[in-house]
Write a structure and sequence with these properties.
single chain, mainly alpha, 7 helices, 49% helix, elongated
């Protein structure tokens, strides 16, 4: 066999292998389906329950005296959260610093999508330092004093 014949034979083999890949292997890969068993029927149907309108516990916050503080200085409190706190009657660092556990839980229940932030961001600790005017202590524990989240 000459070199030309070997090249022609090699080309034919490559075309044949490409045809096998395109027409046999690829379509089979697309046909593979994962069979998921149907869900088991429930033993007994669950009665539809009316949605529970869980009213958060009352929030008894002492009214603030003096001009409002910039609550956005607390790490984790941004403009939206500061507005929400203002609507709830919380406008001073001292109000947050003086809350007990029940009051913090009542506040947390009213924060909607911001629930969990008071504990996670340690608002009470931050508010206590800011209410006392301890900027150095605040910055040592929570970073540079700035505007919000």
């Amino acid at each position: 066999m000459t070199v030309d014949q070997w090249l022609l034979l090699g080309f034919a083999v490559i075309v044949f292998l490409a045809a096998v890949v395109v027409f046999v292997i690829l379509p089979n890969r697309r046909r593979r389906l994962v069979r998921v068993p149907p869900p088991a029927p429930a033993a007994e149907p669950v009665a539809a329950q009316p949605p529970a309108a869980a009213e958060p516990p009352p929030l008894a916050i002492a009214p603030a005296e003096g001009p409002p503080d910039d609550l956005r200085q607390i790490k984790g409190v941004g403009p939206k959260l500061a507005t929400l706190l203002g609507e709830l009657g919380i406008t001073r660092f001292r109000q947050i610093a003086d809350m007990n556990e029940a009051e913090l839980a009542a506040l947390d229940a009213r924060l909607g999508p911001f629930q969990g932030r008071p504990a996670r961001d340690r608002w009470q600790e931050q508010a206590r330092l800011l209410a006392d005017g301890d900027v150095k202590g605040f910055e040592r524990l929570h970073g540079k004093l700035g505007g919000g989240a």
